[in-house]
## 1
Amino acid sequence: MAGKGAVRRRAATGTIAGFVLRIARESARSTQAGMAEAVEVDLATWQGWETGRRPLANVKASALLHMRRRLLAMGADPHVLRLLDPAMDADLVISATVYPENTAPHPLADWVHTRETADMIVWALNGTVPPVLARHSTPGRRGPVAKAPLLPAPDRRLFFTQLRQTAESAVRAGEAGLLLHRQALYLCSYDRTPEATSWMAHALHTRRDLITVRGWTPHWATARSTAVALARLGDPQPLLDFIDRSLADEDAAETANLNYWAYWFGSIQEPQRNDGFMRQRQSNWEPVRLLRALTVGLQQAPAYQDLYIHSLWALLTTHRWLPLADPGLTDTLDAHTSGLLDRTAISPRSRRELGSVHYVLRENRA
């Protein structure tokens, strides 16, 4: 039994990064044997990295750097190579949740995770392919081959059970548990079993009072995540309330919202240890990159369209020159906003703000 447990633990700690490594190798049109020779390791070692039996996180930094550079030199997709870090972070989060160590803090309490890390975790939980990898075709292979680094069903159930317990214990920790609670609760919302959905709805509604607080507070990010999670579960009103009461017309909150998006989408590349960075007014992020990400999000995530619309309005109000920076993107957003304005299923605030966005886009095209 101990041996089986050890195998399951190794799989949990290296599966996602190993899967990304496999895709990177395939993007270079190389075989396992060819890559093993290129990085000067035996075939069994390379195969262990790809399967997760030998976690990449345990590889020496110099050897990992050499591996990345050899993959790049051999033609691997740099966008895939970039995902090795969030994949290793995702493996760490899953391992620490499924196999917790009492003396070690949970990694969700150590830093603010990004969309790329969250996408990697969700990939292992329900098979949803991260957007960056969705365009990569899988070469034909002999025999059955996994299409995603899915955790075994028992590990998935254990992950969500442990994560719910982690979220509850973080609440009892008070201010010290804010980040852990927020991020654990966000990941819990991906468990769609009836029992989990009931628990999630109760947990979120117990925090609903945070949504009514105006402007920035230490709980602002938690309120935002709570409102977004409730919208994902089919209850849009808390998100509308959050925009009206805790975001709109509050300068500090508007700054925090754009900073949060910029970090989530990778425009802020420095890792952040807590949510305090959201209050910084001079954050160094690229507005065009954020406009592009919000435009895509508005099209792909209808459950959050009110938040996307408000965020686009705030971004274009602050940077009215943005439509000139990328005419193709402007045309795409203009066409989509026109379609949304023809519908009735958006809130009065969203309709006003979307009209302003539409005006700014047309103004700069004139």
## 2
Amino acid sequence: MKVLVIQKKRIGDVLTSTIIFEALKEKFPESELHYLIYENAVDVVKNNPFIDKIVLLDNKARKSKFEFVRFLFSIRKEKYDVVIDAYGKPNSVLIGWFSGAKKTITFYKNYAKLLYTDTIYRTEKSFSSATRAIEHRMQLLEPLEIRFKEIAPKIIITNEELEAAKADLIRSNINPSKPIIMISAVGSNTLKTYRTDYLAEVLNEICNHKEVQILFNYLPFQKEIALEIYNNCNENTKKSIFIDYYKENLREFLAITKLCDALIGNEGGATNMAKALSVPTFTLFSPTVPKEDWNMFENDTTNISVHINDYEIIKKITFDEEETTQSYLKFKPHLFKDKLIKFINYNIRS
């Protein structure tokens, strides 16, 4: 059986959908599994043992109608038996339909029902620690008689990459044999970014309890926000922060994160990648993001997350900037201090 799985755009979504491949290989060990993604997400699926081939929908095919048509014919030429469309937007539905596969599966949409053989209604409530992010993807396998199973996304880092990461840390005067914490300093946008003064308080609290080396994860255009956090920290905490240490290459960042004792900070792609690397996470959710959708494999020790709704029920979660700002203002570090201290005591080396 030859299967194409489609999951475009965001790296976190691409990573999460890799669980489909593990479930497919378990049920159909002789199957040939291809993954259609964008170039920016290749690094999180590299070396994945359950994926046989990466199919890139590159920028040229996305921008040019002529190149996109050529891409469609290249997909049809593969003669897939099954297409599983985890993205489920018109563009991806067109790809799945044009593939000629006898079985095409995606989430329910009016347009998808017209073109696909199976459309799946997402469950409204989570029923496992995997959360709806995993549960919904496993639902896509129901037409293939694959039952739900808790599967965690995995990122594979080679020994060579780890050794290179250790050497790079040492060159930057960071000691891999001592505790290192990666801070998810900035969210994907302002509505998903914890207040800089509050995050500085979190870092001060960490340094009050543990002697650690702190690295920041941010994009180059976000450095101003990272510096705000740094400048809000006390002098003792500043001594522990390597504010200029930055990895632009995603594989290098992943290898560095794998060497960290924990990742703490804003919910987003970095959090999901850390979990896929089996690195403990303490996650600060934006008021605009339903925690129950993305707090995958929450426990009381290695994966802990906090949300304003844990402490104050907000009747309406909105993406309105002013309301989100007010919600963040109420989401003060003292609310989750005990959870944070418990987390660092359990996961950070002494």
## 3
Amino acid sequence: MSDNASFPRALPWFARPDARAWRCEPAPAEVRVFHSSLPDYKPTPLTELPSAATELGVGRVFVKDESCRLGLPAFKALGASWAVHRALAERAASGAEPGPVTLVTATDGNHGRAVARTARRLGQGAHVFVPQGVHPRAVAAIVAERARVTEVAGPYDEAVRLAAEAAAGPDAILVQDTAWPGYERIPGWIVEGYSTLCAEIDEQLAAEGVVDGPDLVSVPVGVGSLAQAVVTHYRSRPGGSDGRAPALLSVEPEAAACVLESLALGAPVSVTTGATTMAGLNCGTPSSIAWPFLSGGLDAAIAVTDADSARAAARLAALGVSAGPCGAAALAGLRVALTGSGAGERRRALGLGPSSVVVLLSTEGPAANPHSDADH
């Protein structure tokens, strides 16, 4: 079967040649200080995969393993913890009546569990809206955090709409990891929270002798909040000793490639999503605050099939890295980009050579995103 067999018109790929020259302001340094103060904080592993480097024709490959972050099986707790900290501090400073509030959110699984865990830790309530297609075990994990869960007979965007309506009361705060005009402050804090992950990568690469940072970072994308954090980190500082900034690649499911479609059209658009095992990436609309960063700072975007993700997860497991379908998407996207017809052109667009250093963001472990393949 050819790479394009499941996508008849062409490989779902978009590249932008001048992204590495785009610049923005950095994330605030106090985010890392805050996370370091949490009792269960420790940096997640950055694991080198020499055989993957050989397979991909690059110098070194590292995977950032987010399968255990602040006691949860995905990276999302970084954003939820910082955003809730900021929101509650602002509420107290505004003179609001003291007492518990309800943190409201919509989720494909990981973010909602992170908000519920944060609420439980702080003695607050949580109400989580879950769209169709989220595995019952993922829903049960949110319920186990003592959150109220409302299951929505519709896609992620509908769950977001209903959560926003439910959070309109005086004792509720919407803690959503996607933004739209009029709702951007808290999603912005969530993005800031993810900056800790990137700061850890810098330190861990330096410890491995990679002082100039990576040449490519591959990041799974849903609404684009993590990708916004990655773009912010790598586009807010000068390049390495040779002046070069890294290439940044976003990876989405073919069933929900809203960022790829938006990049191709030059404006943010919503897409109709389909079923995918990459449940945490099954989002139909880019975050409004992420879009300027994605359109300015991403070098390339690619979409992959569930089969691509499953093969990548199996390969990572064989190499000792426990990744769910969304986490494995980072490897799946790079594999698809660097194989098949046009691979040489895509390799050049990403600036990859035999000595390049690649970082894959494995955003979750298998427990974060149960799916049918994991039931057996």
## 4
Amino acid sequence: MKHIGAVQVVVTAVAFDREPTLAELDAIELESPLILAEVELLDAQIKTLDGPANEVDTRRIRRARNRVLAARRDLVNRTAGATVPGGAA
């Protein structure tokens, strides 16, 4: 029986052994309001899975969606002036 082995060295194993860079941490911090708003929306949607949505649940989901939209808008407005590394100037 022949054994089939990888011809190339694994190139991604080393990347998981490192800590996040400062740029990655800054990006996470910049996106955290959007992430939190999306988690809040998901929580509101999960609460309605057990039964039919009542008036309060409907309002909770609508407010959470509005927070997600506002967080997305704010994120786009903050990053609109940022330049992309290696991009056209």
